[in-house]
Amino acid sequence: MIYFEDISSSKKLRHAQLQDEMQRLYSANFSHEMRTPLSTVIEFTDLMVQRIKSGSVHGPGAHLIEHDLQIVKFSSMLMLKQVNDILDTEQITHGTFITKPEKTTARSIVNEVVQALALKANSLKIQLSEEYEQDADKSLLADKQRAQQITMNLLSNAIKFSRNGAIEVRAWQSQKRHSQEQSQSVD
Known about the structure:
By secondary structure, the chain is mainly α.
């Protein structure tokens, strides 16, 4: 008895699976390799700005250096955002995405993003402001990095699609406030 089997479809499937795995590994490795140097640039930029503000670095050009460092930080944070998005997409696709809850506040989440985007908004003549309810300083358990990623995406788009004017970011934490606003918007 002679038996013939078409194995071309199973070879194609195996090849596609291997290609998918190679792409996943490459993306994960690339993202991790980019995160470390970008995080270092951001941390050192913050340290240098703190030194200028504390008076350790002074002179006629100190405020210009601070401005330039803020631009470096902004650019680094935007690049880190892109790297994080690549890694998150891969993790979601492969079911390995894990959140990392930590104690933080709504103010902390929003303020750091607003500070990072303020220079970009100012350069486009867009006023970027923030307003916080009293409960924005209450401790909450959240994945701060993911919350900041979402906030960064929203604000970046708001800045990108605004021609002029102002963008106001309001932050609160209370479920009660959210419920009140929902019922007001329905009326």
